[in-house]
Structure formats: C-alpha cells, structure tokens
Amino acid sequence: MNLHARYRRARTPLTLIATAAVATGLFATSVGPASAAKTAASKADKPTVVLVHGAFADSSSWNGVIERLKEEGYPVVAAANPLRSLSKDAASVKDLLATIDGPVILVGHSYGGAVISNAAYGSDKVKALVYANGFAPDKGESANELASKFEGSVIGDVLRPVPITNPDGSKDVDLYIDQSKFHQAFGADVPAKTAGLMAVTQRPGTGTALNEPSGEPAWKAIPSWALVGTNDKIIPRELQVYMAERANAHIKEIDSSHAVTVSHPDAVTDIIEKAARTVR
To answer: 202 and 99, same structural domain?
Structure first.
C-alpha cells in the first residue's frame, strides 16, 4: 500500500467524525427548546437600548442597568464614548447607530447627554432620548458653559488637568477628577470601595470636548425623558431641571449623586423602560 492510500484510509474516520459532529450541531440547533425562540421573538419586539457614558466614567458604569435591561429582554449596546470632542464623539455614536436594526432608545449620562443630543439629530431610528443626570445643551451651548449657569457644581474645584499633545501636534488637556475628591464629588451615595475603583478607572474628557458648542439638538424633535439627581454635585439639580423643562422632557427626580447609573440602576432602568414603551 502506498503512502497516499494509507493516508486516505487514516483520515476517513476523522472525516466521518467531523461530519457527524457538524450534523449533530445542526440537529441540536434545529430542535432547540421553544423557549429560545420565544426569547428571540421577545427581543425582536423591543427597541435596542444604546447607553452612552460621560466624562470621568466608562461603559462599566452601566453594568447594573445593563443587567436589568437584559433580564427584561432588551437588546443593549454600551457605546465606548471617545471623550475627545463633542462633534467627533457624536459622530462615533451616530456611526454605531447606523449598524443597529430597528428602533433605538438612546440614553446619555452626564456629558453623554450632550453626545446623544447631537448624535440623534436628524435620525429616524432614535425614538426616544433619556438623560440620566445628563447635559441637554441647546445649539451653541457647551457642557462647561452650562455647568456654570447655576450655583452648586463643584467640578471646577476637583479637576486635575493633564496636558496632552494630539496626533496632529496640537495641544489640549485631559481632565480627570482628583482621586481623593472623587467619592464626595462624583458618587457620594456609592460605597467607598466602589467609588475608589471608579476613581482609578475614570476616563478623562478633553478640554475641547467639554468646551465645544453643541450643534442643533435632537431633543427638539425627539421625545425625551430625564432622571434628575437632586444631590448631584457635578450637574446641580436646578440646571438639570432647567434643561429638562426646556426640552419638554418627562421628568423624574431621585435622591442621588451624579453617579446615578451606579447607585440607582433600578431607577435608571425604570425610566428607560418608560421611554421604550412609547415605541412598542
């Protein structure tokens, strides 16, 4: 027997095993439990929730909300907000929205509120905007300008600037919250251990992002909801209410720090679901 014949004989059983394995997998898929099909159908009936974090946070700040939304069968995407400039950050989220089929509920926390206001402009896919302690600027307003509109924000007293050089050689500054001040300033109602981790893992926003004027905001054309933290030391309650009322948002107040997505995920989930029910 030559080597080719011996090789053909040796590989035949392996080929049969592989073929059988594929067939078994296909069979298992085709006769999967009815509950799997039901789950897929229930998700198809619900809008996709897209979550956009703000400065001094990252997508993990939504973890409690994500867990609850998924338990209710919502498709969820947590966008990685670049935090480089408002126009570029909004463009990044807009590109993400273009990849999602069906209606979307767009949710923003803090500076993420400014991002969603711009990203959803002109969209026929975004059916509702939800602001969780979020900025809702009008055209020409920046997050930094709004933060100083009313008294009560400590943001100017807690920032730690880090000079940076952009790829094109231009200069900017990355803004962090001083770790020693993070707990009280950002999340006083978050356990100290959790706040300590958040302080270390915070992502900075640039001076450019926080000072760039907003374009035409989507909240003028898309229904909005606002969860207002009454103990927010970054975006004071008075400012949040001012922006929410101007946007004709459905307002819900809660005794919360700025870190409402971490300290009160149930309340955040509840207002998102209220918005989602309007598009069913």
So the answer is: yes
